[in-house]
Amino acid sequence: MSPPTAFVIGLADGSISSRRDAERHVLDLVNELGYVDSQGRELDQRWFRSLTEPVLYVFEPIGLWRLDGRRRDIPPTDAVRAIAHLALK
Questions:
Q1: pTM, whole model, 2 decimals?
Q2: CATH of 3-88 among 1.10.3680, 1.10.10, 3.40.1130, 1.10.3470
Q3: b/e sequence 6-25, b meaning 16+ C-beta within 10 Å
């Protein structure tokens, strides 16, 4: 499973309720799969944007879910959840 797919599934099933949850959900997956940075360390929240870029590319420009750098508790909107459900069909 790819990080963007894990992100969409988490949005659709409700297990992601904030950016913090999204980061944890996606990063736990990639770290369990053995991904590491160039120095052999597990990936952290700084990697989230690059790992989920295809999904953020859709949501951010149309204002469905803001991912403010400092505010990591902003919840996804109902529209984001609806789009995530449609993307999985």
A1: 0.75
A2: 1.10.10
A3: bbbbbbbeeebeebebbbbb
